[in-house]
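Reading group handout, session on sequence-to-structure problems. Before we discuss, look at one worked example. The prompt was deliberately terse, the way you'd type it at a terminal:

> structure UDP-N-acetylmuramoyl-L-alanyl-D-glutamate--2,6-diaminopimelate ligase

The input record follows.
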Amino acid sequence: MDWNEVLREVCVLECTGSPIEVTGVQYDSRRVVRGDAFIAMRGGSADGNRYIDAVIAQGAVAVVTDSRDAYAKLRREHPEVAAALVERGRRALAEVSSAVMGHPQKKLALSGVTGTNGKTTTAFLLEAMLRSVGRWCVLIGTIETHIGDEIRVSPHTTPESRDVLALFADGVRVGASEAVMEMSSHALEQERVWGLPVEVAIFTNLTQDHLDYHGTMEGYFAAKARLFDGVGAPPPRVAVINTDDVYGERLAAGIERSQVVRYGMEGKGDFVAQDVRMRAGETRFRMVTPHGVVEMRSPLTGRVNVYNLLGASAAAWARGLTLDEIARGAEAGTQVPGRFEVVPSTNDVTVVVDYAHTDDALRNLISLARELVKERGGRVITLFGCGGDRDRTKRPRMGTAAGEGSDLVVLTSDNPRSEEPMAIIEEALAGVKETGTKCIVEEDRAEAIEIAIRAARAGDIVLIAGKGHEKVQILKGGTVPFDDVAVASSVLKEIA
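And the output record:
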């Protein structure tokens, strides 16, 4: 694409025009090839402006920078390279990428999902409902990315705008008409979703998490709320909000430019669940809406998944599906990896791997497990850990949540990163001790999983919480392969 045409779509402070052809866009200097435009932007831990000389040597023909000093140096030392100075690098990344890639975001109806818990499952469910009526989708989320039938690894919950738009472009090429994205609070605040026109926005809930980044719950809430204001784009046409959640109610009350669709289980809202019946591997309820009533059945289990089903259903309705189509799509939905994932076993013990990594999510998980073992008189054994280099204040609260609901707690390591694992464990252990519940401490996560499973008797349920779908353990010395499901499966086979 002609560089002068690209510049017409970018908010620049200064620029040098040039009739050059730009064939790609990069923000990672390692990926630059001849013909690319490089967006040099300052981030939290790195500054892309340090790599300008390197990318020019690799063949970059245009550079956009958010540094006045770097721009002056470019003009002085590399007059042959097209240059532009911008105020905000991430916004420019989105604007340049959109122009060069042919605005793929305008060719897809985008649904964005945000909230502390339930984003991944809600996104999977909405995609399943859309696909059940023949709509080809792009799905971008924590676990994996879908381009039609193709499945790719997701390195981040919400990638940088350039990578999002590249995925959208791939989706358009295979005939996709819909996109479903998880939008994290970090991505919303950092404007990684700048300029994306969201058709339907979903808010699942808000509980304490990521305060190491946002500082306060108010800061965390404000970041989530940006989705409903529009991030460099108009507000969404429809806002789907869980108003059983106190922050959801507050969010809904402040929305003026979108149609608000409320959902919940407490007798209020537009999409409401009644007569909920649950057992392992199945949830049924009656969904009451202003548009009619439909019986819902899903292979997902638990109260939290009733909320996820309601949110996805309301969003699917906003995308034009009938209630009967929504119900059929929900029933066809499959297990989401690492979300109440039952590990296959021939033993009379249920082992579940789940991503629960906040005190609220852990409490919900344990509550569901308690319901499932109640009839058989079984116990709940909960294994968990807390991540390093993250919000320390939630560690004792997670310990309290585990101790209050469980018959036995196994406390272990979970991505300690740069911290000492035992120091993290001690902070969580303080919360467990307050409850008086028996607790076994084992730093080695594989050993801890074996201890938890071998402690179980017939009728018990073992919850392995925190990592879910993750396939690595992040340690001070680096990242090593680790899969809770694989470790648990190996132990179960050995016992059998």
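Points for discussion. First: The CA atoms of residues 26 and 32 lie 6 Å apart. Second: The first helix runs from residue 3 to 7.
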